[in-house]
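Structure ticket #2291
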Amino acid sequence: MTTAGAITDSGNLNVTGDINLAAGAGNDITLNSAGNNFSTLAITSGRNVTLVDSNALDLGASNVSGALNVTVGGAVTESGVLNVAGNTSFTATAANTDILLNTQANNLGGVVSFAGTQANFRDIALRNTNAGATVPTLSGLTSLRNLTLDMTTPA
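Resolution: structure written out below.
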């Protein structure tokens, strides 16, 4: 979907195929209905992006000029590079949620954080090639099983 304005939802979306959204670098994308269920979702362009998925979510190649806020009821994986200029936040609504974003050379420019019931997070794997990357605050993540952080900038 390509538009010259904001993208929002007005009810639950259930999409089993790939979704590519392009709102333009100055427009927000807000898909925040609690019953949303996506497979692979990529953001070609968007400013502040809010995604809610009741299950697992695969993030495709994405370009976000502002903040990225993701709320999920299952694992978050990636099938493309994530470029986020602002802060990135993950909220897990289910126990044993994995955030597995270490297979691509992601460029996360702002702070990466974990919100909501932090005991819901189980495995976290994050690769961030941004030169100003900082280690996320992990102190509230009391149920961590595996943690992988790769903050290596490309040569």
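Closing remark: The chain has one domain: 7-150.
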